[in-house]
């Protein structure tokens, strides 16, 4: 096993190639302003990442509609008012030779009313007292994703990543547990996937052949069926609908405990699919140079760095300098993160992860 393969370039179906195999995962840091505009803390974070050797940097989840908000201080891309900050972020990444994407997000039924969110459930049984959104409302939100992608392109980003994970709206519509609709967006797997397909096809139509489109997929919880997620991914690969799949796993080594694929790793179910020109990467406890290199051997084209990148902003440069590099052991103190350059807003977000920041550390 060698880490050298991590520093080989990677061609994508559309747009420029990745200069190496490191992608910064989309991390929701909750450090934007309350209206979704990028704060100085956002810019500092992006500038740090841009100088850290990543081939590709995704922003955290950005709202495609004001009513789709899930977190306090969530980044927005639903208004032209967000363009100046987004443009500055894209330029910072490009100056250092990296590729960039905005992650497009809508919280669906999990939108937070206390933050101005408007829950938009696929089913009338998901949120007490709230009806399922109509077909016309689905189409409006679809068009908001597409408009947000065009806004990202105007800001200078190389592409967007469509958030289809963790039970947010596109994932919600995929789930037979959360989607009991009778219209064209419910019922069969093809119908439940229609929302996502229309978003991706619409982005390609309005943003053109050089714009890069990623898709973040999770396959755990929220009523998703592993076999169905494999089938729809196989279709996306075969049709080359996307440039890359961002497979969001809590642990990239996780083994399936029951069902058709019992005993196999979740990752292998997807790396084993013919993918034509689509690239596949995974996130999930990639904390060392060794683990990153192993994932390429296991069939990934690139790796997504999340927790390790928060702990050590220049993770790719550390790996290049030391093939035995390993991250600090979690949990760490708030002061450790502060000295590394994390803002107080970001640190407070990480306090919400029980195993990340030592309880009581100031």
TrEMBL record:
<dbReference type="GO" id="GO:0010181">
    <property type="term" value="F:FMN binding"/>
</dbReference>
<protein>
    <submittedName>
        <fullName>2,4-dienoyl-CoA reductase</fullName>
    </submittedName>
</protein>
<keyword id="KW-0560">Oxidoreductase</keyword>
<dbReference type="Pfam" id="PF00724">
    <property type="entry name" value="Oxidored_FMN"/>
</dbReference>
<dbReference type="InterPro" id="IPR013785">
    <property type="entry name" value="Aldolase_TIM"/>
</dbReference>
<dbReference type="InterPro" id="IPR001155">
    <property type="entry name" value="OxRdtase_FMN_N"/>
</dbReference>
<dbReference type="GO" id="GO:0016491">
    <property type="term" value="F:oxidoreductase activity"/>
</dbReference>
<dbReference type="InterPro" id="IPR051799">
    <property type="entry name" value="NADH_flavin_oxidoreductase"/>
</dbReference>
<feature type="domain" description="NADH:flavin oxidoreductase/NADH oxidase N-terminal">
    <location>
        <begin position="6"/>
        <end position="321"/>
    </location>
</feature>
<keyword id="KW-0285">Flavoprotein</keyword>
């Amino acid at each position: 096993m060698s880490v050298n393969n991590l520093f080989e370039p990677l061609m994508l179906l559309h747009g420029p190639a990745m200069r190496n195999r490191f992608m910064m995962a989309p991390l929701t840091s909750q450090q934007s302003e309350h209206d979704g505009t990028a704060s100085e803390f956002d810019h500092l974070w992006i500038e740090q990442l841009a100088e850290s050797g990543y081939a590709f940097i995704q922003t955290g989840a950005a709202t495609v509609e004001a009513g789709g908000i899930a977190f306090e201080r969530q980044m927005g891309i639903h208004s032209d008012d967000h363009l100046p900050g987004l443009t500055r972020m894209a330029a910072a990444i490009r100056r250092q030779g990296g590729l960039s994407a905005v992650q497009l997000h809508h919280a669906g039924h999990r939108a937070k009313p206390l933050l101005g969110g408007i829950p938009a459930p696929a089913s009338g049984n998901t949120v007490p007292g709230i009806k399922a959104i109509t077909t016309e409302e689905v189409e409006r939100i679809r068009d908001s994703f597409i408009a947000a992608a065009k806004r990202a392109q105007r800001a200078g980003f190389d592409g967007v990543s469509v958030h289809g994970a963790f039970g947010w709206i596109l994932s919600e519509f995929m789930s037979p547990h959360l989607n009991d609709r009778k219209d064209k967006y419910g019922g069969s797997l093809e119908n439940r996937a229609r929302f996502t397909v229309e978003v991706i096809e619409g982005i390609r139509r309005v943003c053109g052949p050089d714009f890069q489109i990623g898709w973040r997929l999770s396959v755990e919880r929220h009523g998703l069926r592993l076999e169905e997620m494999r089938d729809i991914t196989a279709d996306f690969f075969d049709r080359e609908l996307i440039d890359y799949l961002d497979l969001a796993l809590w642990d990239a080594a996780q083994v399936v405990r029951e069902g058709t694929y019992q005993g196999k790793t979740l990752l292998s179910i997807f790396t084993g699919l013919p993918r034509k020109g689509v690239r596949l990467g995974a996130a999930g406890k990639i904390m060392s140079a060794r683990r990153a290199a192993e994932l390429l051997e296991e069939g990934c084209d690139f790796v997504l760095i999340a927790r390790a990148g928060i702990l050590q902003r220049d993770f790719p440069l550390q790996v290049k300098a030391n093939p035995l590099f390993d991250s600090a052991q979690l949990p760490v103190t708030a002061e450790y993160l502060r000295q590394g350059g994390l803002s107080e807003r970001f640190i407070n977000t990480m306090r919400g992860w029980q195993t990340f920041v030592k309880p009581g550390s100031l």
